[in-house]
């Protein structure tokens, strides 16, 4: 299991458009083979900064998604809204507490 974390920054007037885009497409992402969980977070103090956390069964599943038409379509619309270059990390969970 891996986690993909993506940090995205938008102009303040494009935040609602991004959230709407995310909500429109979240079921396509979570429905993709290998995606087991999807979260959207917003920075507490910088409301134009968002993070997505997606959990994948394997890096192969993540890469298949990133090469898919689903991803390409979502990303084409999302990147038009950026005000800064997005950052992304693929990480392993070493410990988890409840």
Order of secondary-structure elements:
EHEEHHE
What share of the residues lie within helices? 25-40%
User: Which CATH C-level class is it?
Assistant: Alpha Beta
Count up the domains.
1
* Radius of gyration, taken over Cα atoms and rounded to an integer in Å: 13 Å
CATH architecture identity? 2-Layer Sandwich
Strand content: 25-35%
Outline type: globular
Unreliable spans: none
| Largest sheet: spatial strand order | 2-3-1-4
Number of strands: 4
Alpha-beta classification: alpha+beta
Question: Distance between the terminal alpha carbons, to the nearest Å?
Answer: 18 Å
Number of helices: 3
Average of per-residue pLDDT values: 96
What name is given to the CATH topology?
Answer: Alpha-Beta Plaits
Descriptive key words:
single chain, 98 residues, alpha+beta, Alpha-Beta Plaits, four-stranded antiparallel beta sheet, globular
Structure description:
With 98 residues, this protein is an alpha+beta fold. The protein has a single domain (2-92), classed as Alpha-Beta Plaits, CATH 3.30.70. It is 36% helix and 31% strand. It contains 3 helices and 4 strands; from the N terminus they run βαββααβ. The chain has helices at 15-30, 59-66, 69-79; strands at residues 2-9, 35-42, 49-56, 87-92. The protein has a 4-stranded antiparallel β-sheet with strand order 2-3-1-4. A hairpin with a 6-residue loop joins strand 2 (35-42) and strand 3. Helix 1 (15-30) packs antiparallel against helix 3 (69-79). It is globular and about 35 Å long.
């Amino acid at each position: 299991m891996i986690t993909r974390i993506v940090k995205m920054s938008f102009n303040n007037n494009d935040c609602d458009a991004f959230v709407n885009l995310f909500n429109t497409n979240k079921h396509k992402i979570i429905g993709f083979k290998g995606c087991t969980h999807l979260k959207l977070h917003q920075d507490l103090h910088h409301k134009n900064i968002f993070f997505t956390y997606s959990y994948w069964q394997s890096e192969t599943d993540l890469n298949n998604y990133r090469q898919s038409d689903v991803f390409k379509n979502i990303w084409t619309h999302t990147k038009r809204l950026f005000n800064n270059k997005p950052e992304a990390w693929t990480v392993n969970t070493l410990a988890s507490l409840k």
